[in-house]
Amino acid sequence: MYVWSANVGFAPSQFTFSIAAPGVITLPVGFSFPDGTVITLNSTGALPVGLTVGEVYFVVNSTGGTFEVSTTIGGAPITTSGTQSGLQFISQRGVDLADAGDSDAPLFANVIQVSDVSRFVLCMGTNDYGQTFLDPMLIRWSDQEDPFTWTPAATNQAGSIRLSLGSEIVTALQARQEILVFTDSALYSMQYVGTPFVWSTNLLGDNVSIVGPNAAILASGVTYWMGVDKFYRYDGRVQTLNCDLRRHVFSDFNALQSQQVYAGTNEGFNEVWWFYCSADSDQANRYVIYNYVENVWYYGSLGRTAWLDSGLLAHPIAATYDFEIVQHEDGVDNYALGNITALPAYIASSEFDIGDGHNFGFVWRVLPDLTFEGSSAVAGVSGSGIPTPSVDMTLFPLQNSGSGVSGSASGTVARKATYAITEQFTGQIYTRVRGRQMIFQISSSQIGTTWQLGAPRIDIRPDGRR
Q: What is the mean pLDDT of residues 388-409?
């Protein structure tokens, strides 16, 4: 575990050091380190006597761009002597907390959380006091507002607690006025209660699982996560999430790469996303989405290594396997790698039939209902190089339930013109297709095109039982 202060910056900061009792550091104009900032020093030559390259020091007696250093927080400033040579720098690197904290500072931790409200650093799955081996079910926390004090005492709030259900703590997530702690078989709630117990734990649910450390996400005050064979939600009580795609996801899932599963939100569309590895892939190449407002699921194939949806950003951003950061939900085309390409899109219905499915159905006409509003392509503009927005509507017939698709019939729906009140498009598609059951699909694969489906109508009539 490392600690780093933004005041230190992203590059080494050159300084000058006085040979004095105590020695004073003078920073470049515009730099200022508050008391308590933890730093290490580098030099192209030699530091004055009393200072060591790589040693951890704390800022004391800071005034503007000058300060002194001590080996402890608020401790006595160091006296320097002798000579110095070369250029002196403050390192921009993080400092190992085991070197910066007290003798009981954790050596390592599987999960680290910072309590935003109560202002504690919490280590989950860490070494006990005076021990050098990791206890995967132990939780320890620092003193309040002091990440460097870990030894419990009557004068501070540092402490520890060990969970009982499970063999390891997998991850933790800060929710509403509580921190949710996931073990491999249970879910706990941690809440700050003040002295003498400081933090209390409550078991929220047992016999629950989580597939990996990044598989949980908070959306609209509710926590969602992927388990090893199902999905869950927590909104005050733990519930199994009804998933229509459960078999689709977990029958084609690489359990050996479950640590790569990660969750994200797309708040603009009320969605929770999970990216995961298919059975034949060692990289996250699939996603499944849950829309928690409409209570529907959808899925697809997409390679992303990270995802961030923040209220500070206009759109969600993600990282690709091509080492690029891309924006989602922005525009209608794919601009990855600098090449404008279409975003193939489709939606397909489930199988439908007439009545109880005793009769074959014959479809002779489809009446579209959709809009191309937002498309960058405009009908009638010549020389633009962008085709008129259009989609393909396709009917796939089945001879019997489970028989598989026996053919298809399709037609193209294109934008005709735009009016102040409504939008004109292809009025009807004539087709000849016969089947006991059918699947209706709408798709597009050209640049500059976006569409929204309304309530299309299909003219279908009974056509015998054989």
A: 86
Question: Which are the contacts of 198, defined by CB distance < 8 A and separation ≥ 6?
Answer: 141, 157, 159, 192
Query: What pLDDT is stored for residue 378 in this prediction?
Result: 56
Q: What is the DSSP string of 297-354?
A: EEEEE---SEEE--TTSSS-EEE-TTS-EEESSSSSEE-GGG--EE--EEEE---B-S
Residue 132 token pair: 């050098």
Confidence of residue 227 (pLDDT cuts 50, 70, 90): very high
With contact defined as beta carbons under 8 Å apart, do 11 and 40 qualify? Answer: no
Cβ-count burial of 4 within 10 angstroms (0-12 exposed, 13-18 middle, 19+ buried)? exposed
Structural tokens at position 341: 């390409």
For residue 27, CA distances in Å to 68, 88, 174 come to: 11, 11, 38
Strand positions, DSSP E, 154-245: 159-162, 169-175, 178-183, 186-194, 198-206, 216-219, 222-226, 231-234, 238-241
User: Do the Cβ atoms of 394 and 409 come closer than 8 Å?
Assistant: yes
**All domains of the chain, ordered by start, with CATH?**
2-98 (2.40.30), 101-335 (2.130.10), 346-462 (2.60.120)
pTM: 0.85
Within 8 A by CB and 6+ apart from 415, the residues are 372, 375, 377, 379, 388, 389, 390, 423, 424, 425
User: How large a percentage of the chain has pLDDT more than 70?
Assistant: 96
Q: Phi first, then psi: give them for residue 224, nearest 5 degrees.
A: -120, 145
- Among the listed residues 281, 315, 319, the one whose alpha carbon sits nearest the alpha carbon of residue 301: 281
Distance of CA 10 to the CA centre of its chain: 24
The alpha carbons of the chain give a radius of gyration, in whole angstroms, of: 31
For residue range 45-72, list pLDDT tens digits in order.
999 999 999 999 999 999 989 999 999 9
| Contact predicate 261/275, CB 8 Å | yes
